[in-house]
Amino acid sequence: MSDQKELEKIKVVLLARKKELEEAITQLQSEGGAKIDQVQDQADQALSSAFETLKSSLHNNEYEEYKMIEKAIEMIDAGTYGRCIDCQQLISEKRLLSYPNATRCLPCQEKAEEEREKNSMQSYF
Ligand SMILES: [Zn+2]
What we know:
The structure is a single chain. It is built from four helices and no strands. It is mainly α. It has two domains: 1-81, no CATH class; 82-125, no CATH class. Helix content is 75%, strand content 0%. It has helices at residues 2-33, 42-78, 93-98, 106-124. Bound molecules: zinc ion (ZN).
């Protein structure tokens, strides 16, 4: 089955990305240990805390992607990978190679992003 070969290819991409993320997350965690001591005055402190916020949001993004990739690999192993979680259609191979952790086909993804935007707007008000 050629599908299986495609999935193996995608799995290799995912495993490589997973390893990269593991390294990035480990590095961010070890950097987090060496801080604060060097903070000198208020301006530095403000800058430093802004930087910490940025770093922790980066950390979250990477951790989120990591979890998504883990899930995608699980789905490949379970044989459920490559199908849209919303409409159950096969996601195109081209899309999976550009976005290996895609869990939706393009139209459903666009719809989901619109919804998410709407929801995040609402949470501000
Ligand atoms: Zn879909």
